[in-house]
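Re: that chain you flagged

S.,

Sorry for the slow reply, it's been a week of failed gels. I finally had a moment to sit down with the sequence you sent. For the record, here it is as I used it:
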Amino acid sequence: SDIITAQGTEAGGHTGNISSFVLIPQIVDYVKPRPVLAAGGIGTGRHVAAAMALGAQGVWVGTAFLASEETNIEQPYQETILTGRSEQFTASKFGDGMQARGFDDEVKRAWEASGLQPLPMPLMAILNEPLSLGAKQSGRNDLVNKPGGQIAGMVTERRPAKDILMSLVEEAEETIEQLQSNIDAMTT
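Prediction finished late last night. Pasting the structure tokens below so you have them in one place:
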């Protein structure tokens, strides 16, 4: 493949167990000279600059764009992204049988409290589908799975996707310039 994505556990949706700060440099070193996109926990220009410092050539941003005006997710889901705290986005296998990060809800907590082991994918998803559909139909959006990464705790306003993208670029440039200024000050 032409580009490799290194996704840390902070990411929303299906994810592993290694944090971005640890994973990205390992993947960069392992796949050289292929370019690497950093994913997981990226929602500001500072994160973009950090990913580049870790060796990535670019970033994959997901959760931050769930708060865009152009998103196609339902309003209650978007409100959860905008108001949720980072620690409320937890990883679990009780959604579809594979570890995935999303907003902590009553359904996840009930499965975890049951002591039962999650079924393998796709059986867990099939088992949960009627509950999810019923919850949506009855307006119980609090019981519907809401995938999202821990960066959601830093996403607090609905903005056009263009503004989100431009703020990532502008803040990354400012951060890199500030880092260069700090290095210059240390060496003089």
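What I noticed first: The two ends are 44 Å apart (CA to CA).

Talk soon,
D.
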